[in-house]
Structure formats: structure tokens, C-alpha cells
Design brief:
Blueprint (H helix, E strand, L loop, with lengths): L7 E10 L3 E4 H5 L6 H8 L3 E4 L6 H16 L8 E5 L10 H9 L5 E5 L5 H15 L4 E8 L10 H4 L5 E10 L4 E9 L7 E4 L8 E4 L1 H23 L8 E4 L4 H11 L10 H4 L6 H11 L8 E8 L3 E8 L1
Parallel strand pairs: 4-5, 4-6, 11-12
Antiparallel strand pairs: 1-7, 2-3, 6-7, 8-13, 9-10, 12-13
Bound molecules: oxa(dethia)-CoA.
Oxa(dethia)-CoA binds next to helix 2, helix 6 and helix 7.
Amino acid sequence: MIRYMGRSAKILGTSKYIPEKIMTNKDFEKIVETNDQWIIERTGICKRHFALDDEKCSDLAYRAAVLALEDSGLTADQIDMILVGTNSPDTVFPSVSCKVQGMLKAVNSGAIDIQAGCTGSLTALSVAASGISSGIWNNVLVIGAEVFRDIIDWTDRGTCILFGDGAGACVVGVSDSDGGFASTRLLADGTGHEMIRLESDEEHVTPVVRMKGNEVFKFVNTVMPKFIKGFCKDSGVAPEEIDFWIFHQANTRIIDGVFKRLNVSQEKTLTNLSEYGNTSAASLMITLHEAMESEKIKSGDKVCFVAFGAGMTLGALLYQA
Ligand code: UT7
């Protein structure tokens, strides 16, 4: 059973916080053997943003949280739970979510970080909807935030050009109206844990991202279309009936390939890789905010969220706006 059976949970507000510092493909030409054309053709990325030296993951998460609360019309003391999807917390503990809870003075809230690779904020959204549907929470603040600056190997051209920093957030609350989160599926395939990992070696005492990019690319193109088709079938909806897709932003070629296999039009999604690169767990939340802000999602629309990432992890969520 993948359907939410209880109360309706709806998105009440969204936000993004993008740090000011920008690195273009041309900037990378100066530090590794690469070129603008290769990066654009293979990934769709033109630039990415990075946190300033004194900005940590919790700072980006907090800024996005304040904006999402403002958009929702709720105050911090009305939040029951803060869930943060991140792979680049300030420290392993205390959690980013606890720091944000403290900064917001969300005095009635618990706080949990969710580490599920780039699927982190989709997982958080799925858990938020479960908590609201079952009745244990009324309002949940979901944040995706990353500062990859410190975990990138700036000499590895296969990974350093891909990632960027940023944060996005949304407030999910109980709703009397129709729609809301309808179903969700979270899957893992830990046999693929070596494909994307954080690792230290003789040169890097502080662990850095290591990725078998090509293997990830093949894995996603093989596994995701089947996963999405199965999810849609079990949710009682055909892929062509989905009005809008919020897809994890890893590579425009991955999004194009999966959509082609699903026979879904590109017009039913939004890509922002050219502006932000891959912001890992933040990407889904940033994309959600941009889709809401540009009114690409209309009341009554069926929206499907899809993400994949290190682990390997896969996730999907169906939502009616
Ligand atoms: O969100 C987390 C999940 N991560 C992903 O989804 C990433 C999935 N993977 C990818 O997006 C792609 O595999 C990459 C963009 C990382 C790489 O693209 P690719 O088309 O798979 O390239 P490749 O790894 O097969 O490399 C092709 C060539 C190699 O050269 P040779 O061996 O053919 O001479 C690489 O060394 O491209 C070379 N290369 C580069 N050339 C210029 C690798 N990185 C670069 C670079 N600039 N930055």
C-alpha cells in the first residue's frame, strides 16, 4: 500500500535561498582541464552558486525556512516538526534541523535531519505527509539544504563541475480541501553504495565526493523509468495524466532520457540546472518553489515528485495541488 489514508496534507508555502557567489563553466576552465561546451552538452549546467566562506548549511537552511514560513502565513511556534534533507551538514551532530529550530525559535517543534543522498528532501516531504496524514503533526517545515563547497574535490573534473550550493523549503499543513499528498514510495538499493560516496584518502583528510558518474547515469536511465511507471500504476494514475513533474536536477540528459522512456512531454517539467547545477537534496525544493512561483502548477493539478541519489535511493510522491 503506497497511498496516504488519513488527513489531507497540503503545501502551504514554498521558498528558495540561493547564495550570491557564482562560478561559471569558464571559471572551471581555469582550475581543471574542461571546457564550457563539454559541460553544457554533457550536463546542461552553465553556472552554479556557492555559499560564502562564512555561510554554513544551517545558514542557508534558516534563510529558506524564514521565507517559506512567510509564504505560508504561519509563525515558527505553529510548526510541529522541522525535517531537513541534507548531505552536507555543518557537522555530523548537532543536526542542521536542530540549529534551524533554535534560530527560528520554533519552540513547539522537533527536529530531524534526513540523509538519503539527493533523495533527502523528497524523503523528508514523504515523512512530513505521513506525519500529517496520521494525525501526529499539523504543520511541518521541510527543508533541503546543501553546502557542497567543502566536500568537493576541486581537482576532480568528473565531479567538481557538477555541484552547487543552495536551499529550498516548504511548509506542509493539514487541509480541509480536496487533494494533497496522495501516495509515496521510497526505495533503496544498497548494493550500489559505492557509486556515490563521501571518502577520505591520503590527499584528502576531509572526505570528498567520489562518484562513478557513468555507472550512476546508466543506473538511473535503467531503473527510474520502471520505478516511475510502477509507482504511477500503484497510485492509479498513468504517467501521461500527470500535469507537472518536479524532477531531481542532476543532469538534463538524465531528465530527457527518463521522460522519453515515459513518453512524457518536456513541457510538463522545469529544469534549472543551467543556473544552479546539481544542488543535491536542495534541488527538489528549489524546483518546487520555482514551479509554484511561476504558476506552472495550478490548483487541481496532479504533480509527481521524483528523485534519486547516493545509497542508491529512489523516491516518488504524488500530490494534487
Ligand atoms: O545527483 C546525484 C547523482 N549523480 C548523477 O546523476 C550524475 C550522473 N552522471 C552524469 O551526469 C554523467 O555521467 C557525467 C556528467 C558525470 C559525466 O558524463 P559522461 O557522458 O558519463 O562522461 P564520462 O564519464 O563517460 O566521460 C567521458 C569523457 C572521459 O574522457 P575519455 O576517457 O573518453 O578520454 C572523461 O575523462 O569525458 C571526460 N570528462 C571530461 N571532459 C571535460 C569527464 N569530466 C570532464 C569534464 N570536462 N569536466
